[in-house]
Amino acid sequence: MSDRSAETVITSYLAGLRVELTGIGAADADEIVTEIGALLREAADGDADRATLEAAKLGDAAQLAAGIVAERGMDASGGLTTSEWWRLGVAATIDITIGLAVPAAAAVAALVLGGNLQPPVAGVLWAAAILGVSLLWPWYVWRAWRTGSGASAGMTLTGVAVVRAPGFRRIVRSDDLASLGLRSPRRNVVAAVAITALAAALLLAVGTIAAVQAQEASIISAFELSGGDEAAQRSGAQRAVADLYEALIGGHEQVGSFVTGPASAGVLTIKSRTDTGVVRGVDLAEPERLAPGVWTVAVHELEAGDVPAGRLKMTVNRRIVIQPRGAIAGDWVITDITEY
């Protein structure tokens, strides 16, 4: 008769079983060990020899653990191999790229429509509809990862597959599916390459558009905010008004480059006074800054003998022109003329 107690035999066997079940999680492992321990103690009934015999019937702890895990549909593996991790990372990157390509392009289209379509409500509704529909694309592209059936473009190109069952999910190499008694999903390498290339090109185009727009906005903002130091801006704004009057008093017909928008009507009124000789000169006050790149200039029109003829205020803006090959030019333009 063995000098070991039944509890010692059972405890030793359960300890080995617990080690073999490390990979499935503590809660599940504890449940299995408790269940096996109860069966052994009941069968041994305090007899060490019977405990040893019952443990032998169950077999080696490693084999028992593998059988229990397989029967319960658990995953007792130590994790993915290095090769599987690399494949998984590349496959996921490819599929994320494909899934985001259409929504990213739709976002650009939505911004254009939302900002330009009239009435504004229609632009917002169209933008929302485009974005909403575009979100169906990643749901479709990523379905292989969700359902474990079929193969996405990323899976096809890297040779991995998702195996799913109740309580079980595993990334495996497609070539290993046969050893699991499973059929390899259908793979179309040509289509996968084409879809991936198109998605990458679309994302590149969207990124390029975004970068160009950001650069243009940055350049324009920089010119509007600066246009030189404050003294240079003040001089430029005042010079724009002086040039307008020089052109009008000198009888030049082409003054369109000096004005824009609502100021055009005011220029016609001024022109009528210069043409009839009512206005022969101007006295310009120091420009006042209204906002970055926006100044207001008070104008005192003068008759013969420097007699005041009219009092005006002109709003002058910094204007930016982006020329071919990215060259940038700036000038000043009068945007509003009011009498006071």
Task: Write a brief structural summary.
The chain has helices at residues 6-20, 26-44, 48-58, 61-72, 82-116, 120-134, 136-141, 143-147, 153-158, 189-225, 230-249, 263-275; strands spanning 160-165, 168-173, 281-284, 288-291, 294-302, 308-322, 328-339. The protein is an alpha+beta fold and 340 residues long.
SSE order and pairing:
Elements: H1 6-20, H2 26-44, H3 48-58, H4 61-72, H5 82-116, H6 120-134, H7 136-141, H8 143-147, H9 153-158, E1 160-165, E2 168-173, H10 189-225, H11 230-249, H12 263-275, E3 281-284, E4 288-291, E5 294-302, E6 308-322, E7 328-339
Antiparallel strand pairs: 1-2, 3-5, 4-5, 5-6, 6-7
| Secondary structure: number of strands | 7
> Globular, elongated, flat, extended or rod-shaped: what is the shape?
rod-shaped
Spans of at least 5 consecutive residues with low confidence: none
Task: Summarize the biggest pleated sheet.
Answer: 5 strands, antiparallel
Rg is 40 Å
Q: Which class best fits the helix and strand makeup?
A: alpha+beta
> Please, how many helices?
12
Strand content: 15-25%
What is the string of helix and strand elements? HHHHHHHHHEEHHHEEEEE
Distance between the termini: 120 Å
Query: What oligomeric state do these chains adopt?
Result: single chain
Q: What is the typical, i.e. mean, pLDDT?
A: 82
* Helix content estimate: 55-70%
